[in-house]
Amino acid sequence: MSNLRNLRYQVKDLYKRLLFLGREYPLGYSYFYPKLKNAFMKNRNLTNEDEIKKAIDSGEYVIKELEALYYLKKYRAIKRAYYN
Amino acid sequence: MTVLKILVGCKRVIDFAVKIRVNSARTAVETADIKHSLNPFDEIGVQEAINLREVLGKDKVSEIIALTCGPSKSQEQLRTALAMGADRAIHVETSKDQTLEPLNVAKIFKAIIEKENPNLVILGKQAIDDDSNQTGQMLAGLLNWPQATFASKVEIDKDSITVTREVDGGLETIRSKLPAIVTTDLRLNEPKFVTLPNIMKARKKPLTKFSLQDFDIDVTPRLETISVTEPTTRKSGTKVDSVDDLISKLKSAGAL
Questions:
Q1: In chain B, what are the domains?
Q2: A80: chain B residues, CB-CB within 8 Å
Q3: What's the pTM value of the predicted model, to 2 decimals?
Q4: Whole-number Å distance between alpha carbons of B4 and B64
Q5: In which domain, by residue range, is A42 found?
C-alpha cells in the first residue's frame, strides 16, 4: 500500500509540473488544461503498479516534448527575425 | 587555473511571442499589460555561465551573478536567472518611465564590475526589444577589457578564454586573457526550461538592490526617438490562370 501512496505523490507532482508548463502553451492555457485533466482522468482507475508507472513515464515523456517544443518555437522565432 | 567569477546581464524585454504594437503617439511600443520575459540572448548567457560551471567543476566557478538595470518588475527576470542557476542577483532599480540607453547601462555595469570584480562578463549580443547591439562593446571600451562578441562556443583554459565567433561568412576563433567580455549568439547553447521547484528555490536566493542615485552616472538621454512605425505589411498576391496572364501581370508591375 505504501508503494501506491508513493506513486500517488508522483502522479500529483507530474500533474503540477504539466500544469506549470501549460501556462506557456502556444494555443493557450484554456486549451491545454482540459486536455491535461482528461488525460489524467482517463487513467484514474489504474490500480496495477506497473501500469501506473508506465503512465507516469509517458507523462515524463510529454514534459520533455513540451520543453523541446517551447525551445524550438523560441529558437525559430528568433532565427526568422534575425538570421534569414 | 583562475577561479571564475561570472557576471551575466539580464534584460527585461517584451516576450518574443507577443505581437508588438506601436502606441498612438508613435513614440514607442506599447508595454503596459504585455507579457515580458528575459531577453533570449541573455538567457543563453545565463545558461553559458551554468554550463561553464558544469564543465569546469563547481570549485572553478566561484559565483554567478545576474545583473539587471530596470524598473521594479525586472526582478521577475532576475528570479528567472536565479531559477536557471545563478547564485545571486543585483538589481539597479530605475523609475518606471526612465529609459536607459546602452551607454548608460554600460556605465552602470562598469560601476558594478568595479565593486564586484568579476573576471568574466557574459551579455546577450543584443536585446530583442531595441536591437542595439552596443552594451557589450561599450562596456569593453569603458573598462578597456578584451571583448569576444557573437560567441557560438566558449572555452576556458588556465587564465585565457577561447571564443568561436559567428562572423559574416564563417567562424572566427579568438583567444584572449581574462578578464574579458563575451556576448552570446543564438547557437551558443540551448537554455534549459526553468522548473517549478527551481523557481521556488530561487525566491530564497539573495538579491541586492541599488538605485540609480547610488551611482554618480549621468543618465540624461543623448538620443532622441523621432518616430516609431510598424513595418509595412506585405501585399497579398493573386493567382493567374495562364502564362499569358502571368506575363501581362509582370509587365504591368514593371518586372519585365
A1: 4-229 (3.40.50.620)
A2: none
A3: 0.87
A4: 9
A5: 2-82
